[in-house]
Amino acid sequence: MAKIGVDAVARALAILKAFGPERREMTLTELATATDLYKSTVLRLTATLEEGGFVTRGDDRLYRPGPELWRLGTLYRQSLDLGDLVRPTLHRLVDATGETASFYIRDGNQRICLYRVNSPRAVRHHLDEGQRLPLNRGAAGHVLAAYGEGTGASRKKVLAQGYYVSLGERDPEVAAAAVPVLDGQGKLRGALSVSAIRSRFDARAQKLALTSLKLEAQALVGLLPASEA
Fold first, then answer.
1. Which of 173, 152, 175, 154 is nearest to 163 (CA)?
2. Any idea of the CA torsion for 100, 106, 111, 114, to the nearest 10 degrees?
3. 159-168 core/surface letters (b: 16 or more CB in 10 A; e: else)
4. Which of 59, 70, 125, 159 has the fewest beta carbons closer than 10 A?
5. What are the tens digits of pLDDT across the range 96-105?
6. What residue ranges define each of the domains in the chain, with the CATH number in brackets?
7. Which residues contact residue 79 at a Cβ distance below 8 angstroms, ignoring those fewer than 6 apart?
């Protein structure tokens, strides 16, 4: 009986997860297709979800997310400490690359190092949290500008490849790679970056950094609540 209960919950959650920015409303058939469940199963589960306020069904017979999800989402946003999500990410990046990892946000024409974990190496690129840097130089700056409201020359390139690598742009001895951090609705929340002494940030190191950055940024998509802006 316990296993049946767990399966039922998993199927109900699959129905809720089927909704998204591109699928805000669905028919019974579409829900069944999206979840790979029988229509009869979907119908039974949605009846319970509708009773609890997790889904609604309009006169047009379309299913939509219900108000209870908004209430729970609001509670999650209010209790969320961004640092609790980002700091473990930075530690994993340092472990994977051996270099300094940081998370930047944009503030006007500058970027702020909101969180960072410095490399354990004796010779390293050292950053302090709260440090302000220019937006038009450096990997994270180019990413924030491109995915924000920037119109710089690098914007098309950054958007096309989904990352930026800088070699001595801001400091001739420093190199970095950065990727955007987006929430579930595709809104820019910041930029993840790995920075190093330029002499050891060769093609192999760049590839490792970018692979690690992309994996961590993608993992954050599922953890960050959608921005209200």
1. 154
2. -40
3. eeeebbbbee
4. 59
5. 999 999 999 9
6. 2-78 (1.10.10.10), 80-221 (3.30.450.40)
7. none
